[in-house]
Each structure stands twice: as C-alpha cells, then as structure tokens.
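Budget justification, computational time. The allocation requested in the original proposal was used primarily to generate structure tokens for proteins on the priority list. As evidence of use, we reproduce two of the resulting records. The first is shown immediately below.
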Amino acid sequence: MHNSTRWVVLKFGGSSVSDRKNWDCICEIVKKRVEQGYQVCIVHSALTGISDRLQKLIEASSQEEADKILADVERRHIKLGELLELDAEAILRENFIDLKRLSRQMISTGEAKYAMQAGILAQGELMATRLGAAFLNQKRIETNWADVRRLLYSKSQKLISDKRAFLNAECDYEPDEMLEKNLANSKRVVLTQGFTASNSEGKTVLLGRGGSDASAAYLGAKLQAERIEIWSDVPGMFSANPREISSARLLKDLTYSEAQEIATNGSPVLHPKAIAPAQKYQIPIHLGCTTRPDLEGTKITASVPEEQGSVKTIALRKDIILVSMESVLMWQKVGFLADAFGIFKKYGLSVDFISTSESNVTASLDPITNSHFNDIKEDLTTDLSQHCEVKIIENVSAISLLGRHIRTILHQLSNFFEVFSEHNIYMVDQAVSDLNFTFVVDSSGAEDLVKELHDKLILNSVNQNVLGPSWINLMGFKKQKNKSEWWRKKRPQLLKIAKETGAVYVYSSDELRENIERIQSLEAISSCFYAMKANANKHVLKEFYKAGLGFECVSQDEIERIFELFPEIDSKRILFTPNFAPRREYEQSLKRNVNLTVDNIYPLQNWPELFENQEIFLRIDPGYGMGHHQYVKTGGNKSKFGIPRSKMEEAKRIVEKTGAKVIGLHTHTGSGIKNEMQWKETAETLYQIAQEFKDVKILDLGGGFGVQQFDMQEKLNVAAINRSLLDFKNKHPKYELWIEPGRFLTATSGVLLAAVTQLKKKGDIRYIGVETGMNSFIRAALYGAYHPIVNLSKLDKPATQTTTIVGPICESSDTLGAGRNFPETEEGDIILIANTGAYGHVMSSNYNLRKPAEEVFI
C-alpha cells in the first residue's frame, strides 16, 4: 500500500486527558503536528480511575450501589467538562443513558456476561473522547470524532475463552487503503477511542487493560503511519520504574525487540501488544511526556547503533504464577511436554518462560495475559495431575535484567548475584534472544532487590553512553527556582565560602534544627540518641546536645569526644554499641558508666567478670536486613551485627552466669528505610524476645530513617511512624522506646562544594572534573549512592547536556555522579553535591595524599 498522506498516530493515556492543563498541552502537540503537514489520528483512554469505577459497577450487587457509582462517573465527566468550558451533560447525554440501561439490565438479570461487561467498560473511552473532540473543535482544531468499533475488528481465534475474546482481544492490522482514504477525507484531525474494538458480529470487545497503546499501533499499521507517538506522564522507558527509583535513567534508543522485552517484563509505559504492528511495518514509536513535550523521550526503531553487551533496565513483574509439574516418569519420556502444554492450550493459557530438569518442568504465567486463570485453576490442575504432580506457586515476582548481548557479560554480572543470597529463588531463565536474564523470587522482597540491582548494574555501569538523563534530572531541573532546599537561599554565601576555602563541607544549623523537630515529634519515643558516626563535627554535636538528645557511639574515641565537648553530661545520655571491639573498650565504657550494648555472646563467655552486676543491652539480629544497599543492611546471616535469635537461649544462660542484668534489647536492620511500619515491626520483634528477659524495660528500635533525596521524592511519613508506635506503646506501656537516628538528622544539613578543574569529552560521554573526589566523599563509590548535584555558579541556567562528574583520585570508581543534566560549565564554576551532611567528612581520607574537604558551620 502506497500512502500519499503523512499520517501520525498520537495516543494519550488517562492521566493525560483528565485535566485542563494537560488538554492545553495536547492542543499544542496536535497543532504542531498539523503545521508539520501530518494528518493526525488521536487515540485516547478513559479518564483516570473511570475504568476502575466501571469495573465496580459490574461488580455491584444492588441497584442502589450501582446508582451511586453511576452518579460518581457522571460527576467526574461533568467536572472535567466545566474545566474544559463544555456542557458535558449535553454532549454525553446518550452515553449516560446507555450506561444506565446496561447497568439496569445487568442488575435485573443478576449476571454480567462478558459481552455486557465489554459494553459497560467501553463507555469510559466513548465518553472521554467525545469531550476531547468537542474541546479541540472549540479550540479551532477541526476534529472528527470516530467510533473505533468501525475502524478496528478483533481476530477470530480458536481455543480461547469467551472472557478473553471479549475482554482481551487482538485485532487485525493489515494496511487498509479504503480506511485510510475515508479518514483522510475527513478533517485534518481524527479522534477515536483506545482499548475498544468490535468483533465480526458487530459486538463491542476490549483489548485488555492498557490496550489503548495497542489501538494506536493497530491504527498506525492500517494507516501506514509515518510515526506512532505514545504520550503519557513519563517521557519514555527507563532503566527501572522511575516512580520507585528516582535515579532511573532514560533509555534514549531501543530496538523493537528490546522494547518488547521491557514492555513484556513489567514496564507500564508501553503495552507489549503495541510493538508487533509497528515492527512489521517498520513504523518508529516515539514515547513522550504530555506536559513536557520538549523532553527527548525514547525512540523505538528497527536498529540502534551497535554496542557492547550491557544491562539497560531492571524490570519487575509482580505477582506472576508458577505451575510446577513434577514426575520422575517424565525423564526421556517422548511427548510429555506436548501432552502437558496441550492442556495449557486447551485452557487458553499463554506461557511466558519454562524451566526444565530431569524430573520437573515449571512454567510461568502472566496474570494479566491469563486473567481467567482463577476460573480454570482447578480444572487445569486436575487435567495435569493425570501426567504429573502439580503445584501452583503464587505470590512470586519476576526480576529481569534486560539489555543487549547478556550472555557476553554473564561473567561480569556474577559478582552482583550475591544480592539474591538471602532470597528464595524459584526459577532462573536466560532468554534465547540474549536480551533477558530473569529470576523469580518471593514478591515480598522483590522491590528491594530491584533497587539494589539498579544501584549496582545501572548507576555504576561503565557503558553510560546507552543511557540518558535520570528521571529526577529530566523532570526536576526546570523547577529548580522554586525548590526549597536551604542551600538555594544561601547561594551567595556558599559561593563566597567555596572561593575562599576550596573544597569544603558546609553545614546549616537551621536545617539541623528542623530535622531535630521532626524526630522529636515521635511522641512514643522516650529517648533519642544521635548516631554520631554520621557526622562528628563539634558544632553539629553541640546542636544535638542543646536539643537534649543523647549520643550513640561505636568506639571509645567517640565516647571520649563527647565527654571532652560536654564534661558535665549525664553518662546515661551516652549509648555505646561496639562491634568486635577489643576488651579494653568494654572496660573503659563500664568505668564511664555509659549504657553498654553487647552484640555478641563472645564477650559474655570470655570476659564474664566485666559484666558482674552490670546493667546491659543485648543487640539482636532479627534475621533480616533492610536498606538501600547491601552494605547498609545490618541484619541477616550476611551481616556481622547482632546476636541471632537462634542463640537467645544460650545468651540468656550466659547472662545469668555472669550476674549481669539485661535492661534493654536493641536491633538495627539497616539504613535508608522508607517503610513507616518497620519500626513498629521491630518493636514487636523485640517485645517477643523481651518475654525471656524479666528485667528488660527498654526496646531500642535503632535508626535507619530514610532521607528524602529530591523534591519529587516523598518524605518519610513521620506522622505515620508516630501513629504506629503510639499504637504499640498503648498496648505495651511497660516498655520505653528508644531510637538512634544518624543520617536522617544530618544528611540534608550538609553540602559539599568543589570547583571545576577540567572538562573532557570521550565519545558520547562528557566529563566534568572537580577538585576533590572519593577522598572527601566516598558514598557514591562505596554504595552507588545517588546525590543531587548542581552547578551552583549557574544554578538558573538551562540544562543543555548530560554529563558525568568525577574527582581527581586515581581510581576508576572516583565518580560523584553519572548521567546528570547540566548547563554549559567552565573551569572555576562551583559544583554543589547535596545531602552530604552524613557519612561525608567522617569517612574521608588522605588517599593519593590529597587533603579532604574542610568543614564550615553556618
């Protein structure tokens, strides 16, 4: 088919069409495409949340319940109509009537057949697109509203259930010259629905949740479009889900095959069904952000420049289903797999990946593709049981390393697989396509694993040229003028300090006090001890002393620093938590009469005379660790901290022998924790152990409170933590609760300033060198930690390039930040690294005999 008309298909998701601001952006995008000479076909979804409401309508058990839902659906559309300055009641009157009729029919029959469900759910797109077309016409963009059920028709497929045929259909997409001519003869813009089509009998069918992307691709193929554009609230595909990992990097260019792997393995940006039609007819797919059309986005084509093996993204597919088939009789039995998978075919199940051994075959099922699984689960199990022992495994998730030439870099990846050491692995699969390496693990720990793998494999990747800017840089840098970080307000003072001092840490007393107020709002906490290993600057310590906090120390020298600064301090405001420390530190701390925590039974067994008649704490290993990186997890068998719960009986006997009294139990699972229920769960764990020690009156919940790294990242919900701990305290008033935060109190109070020394470009990678590096700040090299970095000298200049910021240390790991959006930068500019008030100067060194950054307190 030769197409003289230049078609472009624009698809907009539900979030893009649900408010006036976004519709104004859509108008500008459409006008630009018309000005470029395109015939425009717009496909868009229902308003955000409407499909869910319509699903609730289908599930309604009474007319009263259904009417409430209908009223809410109407209200949402009328409200949007008001924002768009449209009379939505008049425009959608027939749709509202149809929806009520279908609802009453469903309630009266007491059954919602799949055809009826499709008819109800399709109303979301029908209503939204009528408003959209009316708005564009009102804005003098001549638009023709079209019913997609006259444009797209589902395939007739054998051996699929009615449920799938009506609710998860697929469409033919061969080029259609007559359709192209008919639409081209209409106005320059055609607007139609996503998610919806019709079957050969003219009945409404759906393409499955997220199917609007497929609608756009089907129409793009039928019209032989020049390009397909998928617009949503994110600018493209990323190296991880950017909503959960703000440091995720944009994937600028992908092949169809790579995009298919990423989409199939859980990326919400593009539906997997959308790729095949575009690939068959070599139509480029462009992914963009509706509210930020200026951003580069992701381009998906047949080929991208050849590159070495690399992992491009870490994908998570939640709550998949495994079907395990076990039988010693399958070994070398001809036709076993054919028989078994014939049963899967019989029930219309699509299998993702398969793991085999001499006596077991395990297949994975995507619950979205196989939405009818629960309906046929028992029948499937019964049929398969005639051939083997069947086990259905649920509550598991698939974590996939996706990229290019994965097999060529397996030897490099092996060091990173240690992150799985404390997790059950049910299945490992390496795709024949060489694009995918997948682990199936328990769903409960999957998200933490993704973050850890992303830190290791993406942020520290040497193959940075395949990655674009990070999510936070893309979506945040234009808002910098309005950000509230203290250092923006103190910019002139900071620039002056950096010019006079050279590389320097600067700490804000105001920010410290704000953080102290937040932590002191925890009403259930009796005592708060600052973990001084985070920052031992004397001015910082004085702020905490004035605020009435205690000090958690991990060495005798830290204890002596506190007594030196505050000779009048009550010794019980000091908590000593040594780890594998020599005997003399225990002796000295007991003489100082500070609170002492014992985290190993060795001192009790071998130096019992030290502890006679002493009150002590025991540090417990709860059996698991938490945190943003393996090295900050302080629980579990791979961690050196704490007495295992399995050793509690032994610990109790030894304590009784020494004559010591255990007055407190302590645990600390890790750092950077954002789960507000974690500290209550820790309290519950310690409470259970406390029942074995009659003198325990204190439960020390440790620290690990997560720090907000960027404006777009949610702050730790301290109020929620407070509520959960008050609930525990009300149930167990006998116990005092202690905490010992460190980084939470100091991280945001500090910045590291350093001047630019040199600039370099190697291939596609730009480097900005600064006067200090990992000798002053090692977190990026040690943990792969992400810290916001800005050019303080040119804070208000637009970001025009992606660059990597490095130090002068003779190590390849001396990278302070990679893939950062930066303005044009020159020698002498002052670079600021934020949130460096914790584990910065205290971890610095004179490596390469370079003096680390100094400290200034303001």
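The second record produced under the same allocation is shown here.
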Amino acid sequence: MTKYVRAIYKGAPIWGRVKDDTVVLLRRAPWIDRSESGQTVKFNRRDLLAPAEPSKVILVGLNYHEHIKESQSATKAPDEPVIFIKPNTAVIGPNDEIPRYGFLERQDYEGELAAVLGRPIFHASEWEVRQAIFGYTCLNDVTARTLQKKDVQWTRAKGFDGFCPVGPWIVTDIDPTNLKIETRLNGEIRQSGNTADQIWNIFILTKFISDVMTLLPGDIISTGTPQGVGNMAPGDIISISIEHIGTLENRVKSA
C-alpha cells in the first residue's frame, strides 16, 4: 500500500510519495512516471491539493439499497448503474472550503469511495479495468437536493463549482470491495456503511462506464453513497473517512 499526494511546494503543484513524515518528490503524476527526483520535503497536510486533475468525474447514483430507500427516487434498485458527470471545475481539494450557495434550499453531503484511472480505456474487459485503476481516494458528492428532484436529470444539482471535494491522497494496492466508510458532520457520525454493500463494485462500474466513453488517466470514478445523507450549513465541517485510505475534511462557507 502506497500513498501518493499532490501538494503545493514553493508556489507550484508537485506530486510525491509519502514516506513517514516526508514526501519524496516525483517527476510527474505517478500513473505516468513513478521515478523520483531524489528530493524530499516535510509532509504537511495544509499543502495538499486534490490528488488528481481529471478531464471528467463520473459518478453513480443509487448504489446502496438503504440509500435508495431514503432517497425516495426509486422503489427498487435500478437494472443497471445510473451514471452522471460532474465537470472538472467542481473539483476542490482537502484544504478548500465547500461553498454553501444561499439560493439553494438544501445542499447535501454524500461520502463516497472513488477510484483514479491510470491508463486510458474504452470497451475494457474486467482484467483491463483492474489494470487501469491506479488507486483510491475519498470523495464528497455534494448535491443540491431540491434541484435534483426538480430537474429529474442531475447535471445542475451536482455540477456547481466546489461540489466535488476529493482527497486527501491516493492509496494503491488495497481491496476496494470491503472498506468501511463513514461521514461525520461536526464530529457526529451521519453515514456508516461498507463498500461490500454496494450493488455494483468499482470494477463492474468502471467496465460499464468504459462501454460508454473513453476514460483517461487522472479521471475519477465515484461509487455512490450509503444512507444518511444530509444538509450542510455554513461553518459545518464534513469529514469522510474510508478504511485504509484516510479522512477527507472540508469546512463549509457561505458563497
């Protein structure tokens, strides 16, 4: 298991491999080139950026049975994955604040496991999918719930700037199909689930999505949220913790 970070160093973004309390600098993004520059810097969470610069973020709705019940948007699990896209302008990092837009009646957190692609794939086999996924991270699928119900399709409700916190880093070589996931609102657990409860796991989802579109290195695929989603207010702190990965924490601010 290796942890890769993207961070600010001397005013510019860098990639690195975390080693104890230091970051070993890489020459490029680790899915392109894992060769090291030979330089190390002290690890500081305050310098972390979103650990990918995706061309797109593809997400899935209704992937946990209990969340389907609370969403009231379906009476049973769909026959195949329900996918949607967030623009890359929605992506923010672990040190960024989630904008709380005053004109939105309700703005929810949704803690999720996400995968970062390391190779381009299209019409991929499951074996090719497993080779193409570089690693895993945490994601908050922020949602304007009232707009989601109003619009039927989800682009507007999911696509605002700042509606896709990702991080704090990418972890490789873990089993994504049996990971505990929890979301805390101001320290209180609001979501608690396990990726073993997903209707479709990350490998099935990625294969399904690759039959629709080309996935590029750095693209992010998120796997849906357990039950317990809820509204956020300015000043709230949302923490998403996933076993073997870590915790993505963001404060909410008025926008």
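A brief technical remark on that second record: The chain has two domains: 3-47, 57-254.
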